[in-house]
């Protein structure tokens, strides 16, 4: 696991929760000292898109997935240090991959939506 992925995981407020329909949710809080804010941007730090993608990947498949591609992504709200970020993932199997539809919200506002193609690690080896 990469250092950045470990750092993202460490900002989760707890484990993923799965609802009765199979959707998974996780919450994250990225403190001002989070490594991802370094240089992004010095006078007004905002959470980088790649960090949001990694949070979506962790929510959809935990550490058992490898990111194959970001099929589409739309970032519609800046996420500031210290804000509670809620990530919701709905997944479906497609061939040997998992297609994850991710919704990220902060304070009830949609911050990002994305579709991720994930591959189970055990199949990637």
Please provide a brief summary of the model.
The protein is α+β, with helices and mostly antiparallel strands and 125 residues long.
Show the helix and strand layout.
Blueprint: H1 3-10, E1 17-18, E2 24-29, H2 49-61, E3 65-75, E4 84-94, E5 97-106, E6 109-120, H3 121-124
Antiparallel strand pairs: 1-2, 2-4, 3-6, 4-5, 5-6
Describe this structure in words.
The structure is a single chain. This protein has 125 residues and is of the alpha+beta class. It has one domain (3-124): Hotdog Thioesterase (Thiol Ester Dehydrase, Chain A, Roll). Helices cover 20% and strands 42% of the residues. It contains 3 helices and 6 strands; from the N terminus they run αββαββββα. It has helices at residues 3-10, 49-61, 121-124; strands at residues 17-18, 24-29, 65-75, 84-94, 97-106, 109-120. It has a 6-stranded antiparallel β-sheet. Strand 1 and strand 2 form a beta hairpin. The model has no long low-confidence stretch (mean pLDDT 92).
* Main sheet strand line-up: 1-2-4-5-6-3
What is the name of the CATH architecture? Answer: Roll
- Low-pLDDT windows of residues: none
What fold name stands as the CATH topology? Thiol Ester Dehydrase, Chain A
Largest sheet: 6 strands, antiparallel
Q: What is the H/E string?
A: HEEHEEEEH
* CATH superfamily grouping: Hotdog Thioesterase
The number of strands is 6
Count of distinct structural domains: 1
Helical content (DSSP H or I, runs of 4+): 10-25%
Tally of helical runs: 3
Shape: globular
- The gyration radius over C-alpha positions equals 14 Å
CATH class categorisation: Alpha Beta
Distance between the termini: 14 Å
């Amino acid at each position: 696991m990469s250092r950045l992925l470990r750092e993202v995981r460490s900002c989760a407020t707890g484990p993923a929760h799965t609802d009765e329909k199979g959707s998974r949710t996780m919450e994250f809080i990225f403190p001002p000292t989070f490594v991802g804010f370094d240089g992004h941007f010095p006078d007004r730090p905002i959470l980088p898109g790649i960090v949001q993608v990694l949070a979506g990947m962790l929510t959809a498949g935990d550490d058992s997935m490898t990111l194959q591609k970001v099929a589409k992504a739309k970032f519609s709200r800046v996420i500031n240090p210290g804000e509670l970020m809620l990530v919701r993932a709905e997944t479906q199997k497609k061939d040997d991959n998992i297609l994850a539809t991710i919704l990220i919200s902060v304070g009830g506002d949609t911050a990002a939506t994305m579709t991720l193609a994930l591959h189970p690690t055990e199949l990637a080896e």
